[in-house]
Amino acid sequence: MNKPTSNPGPRDAPIQCYIKRDRATSIFRLYFGLTPSEDESDKLLLAAKKTRRATSTEFLISLVADDFSRASSTYVGKLRSNFLGTKFTVYDSQPPSDEAFKANHSRSSRRFHTKQVSPRLPACNYNIATITYELNVLRTRGPRRMNCSMTYIPISSIQEGGTAPTPKSFPQENPPLSLPSVKSDTVSKDSLVLKNKSPRWHEQLQCWCLNFKGRVTVASVKNFQLVASVDPSHNVSDAEQNKVILQFGKIGQDMFTMDYRYPLSAYQAFAICLSSFDTKPACE
Q1: Which residues contact 63 (CB under 8 A, 6 or more apart)?
Q2: Contact present, 205 and 146 (Cβ < 8 Å)
Q3: Where is the composition biased (Basic residues) (predicted)?
Q4: How far apart are CA 280 and CA 225, in angstroms?
Q5: For the chain, which residues make up each domain, given as ranges?
Q6: Each residue of 234-260: pLDDT tens digit?
Q7: Most buried residue, 27, 209, 224, 237, by most Cβ within 10 Å?
Q8: What is the maximum span of the chain, computed from C-alpha positions, in angstroms?
Q9: Distance (Å, rounded) from C-alpha 245 to C-alpha 198?
Q10: Residue ranges of the chain whose pLDDT lies below 50
């Protein structure tokens, strides 16, 4: 079942989670763990509520599953789409600290556990990532193609000896949820960009295939694996470039797995996966 080793390396230990979708309420719940269990009350990491507007779709993200008010101390941020559902922006409600801003995106982690909620300032919108789905103009067969520009995570985070705002090793009981962000509407040339890992066409099955190592069991256009998209000038090893940083896939009618690793946080990974739940007829 692709379980983490007892002493995982700093960059090689994926955090394995799963997402439950409630169609009736349009609520998505992110749980920490390998597989769904009967007692999930203490495993909830984040929850999101999907709302449709005239020109966009929004996912409001909270630390709890019954309060999505922006005025609440449990409100984390939101994901907003454009009209076509081809571009999404991830917003964090936490304003950047002056020290973090001056240090050019250097920051410490926050909210390591759902019960540890610090006093919050009024909710604001700070752009921390942009997710773009490519239009499938020629209607070619294959999975959706996407790119995720992480506004404040530097490419250097995956270079030898590099660091990122997230811890290099994740406590298995309290994975990091979110981080302070820098207010920015543009992506630096040194920001980390994630792209789809290219699937292989399986002649016998007549479908596009990716190796999810048993973590995904149902074929779906929503399934994806993301790896770093890096220019050769950045001197990132092939092994690091081929490493799956985030994978998401279907295991049941309304059940999905989400496995992420350094340098992403749970909030960033969850928001990227939520974008897959919006309808995108022009991309399929």
Answers
A1: 46, 47, 74, 76, 111, 114, 117, 177
A2: no
A3: 104-114
A4: 18
A5: 15-283
A6: 888 888 888 999 999 999 999 999 999
A7: 224
A8: 57
A9: 14
A10: 1-10, 96-122, 180-187
Q: 101 by DSSP, 3-state: which?
A: helix
- The full length of the chain comes to 284
Q: Which two tokens stand for residue 108?
A: 């410490």
Contact 103, 242 (CB under 8 A): no
Backbone dihedral region for residue 105 (phi beyond 0: left; psi -120 to 50: alpha; all else: beta) = left
DSSP letter for 273, please.
H
Residue 197, amino acid = K
Bridge-based pairing of strands 191-196 and 200-202 is: unpaired
User: Scanning the structure block, which residue is given the tokens 């920051």?
Assistant: 107
Question: Which numeric CATH code is attached to 15-283?
Answer: 3.20.90.10
In DSSP terms, 250 is beta-bridged to: 218, 256
Q: Residue 239: what pLDDT?
A: 87
Burial of 73 (0-12, 13-18, 19+ CB in 10 A): middle
Which structure tokens are listed for 251? 């295991």
- Determine how β-strand 255-260 pairs with β-strand 246-252: antiparallel
pTM attached to this predicted model = 0.80
Model pLDDT, residue 258: 96
Q: Residue 29: which of 266, 242, 226 has the closest Cα? A: 266
Tokens, residue 14: 């994926």
CB 175 within 8 A of CB 15: yes
- The phi and psi torsions of 47 (rounded to 5 degrees) equal -140, 150
Compute the C-alpha angle 245/128/27, nearest 5°: 75
User: Which residue from 90, 79, 74, 97 is spatially nearest to 182, judged by alpha carbons?
Assistant: 97
Structural contact between residues 216 and 251, judged by C-beta atoms closer than 8 angstroms: yes
pLDDT at position 106, please?
A: 36
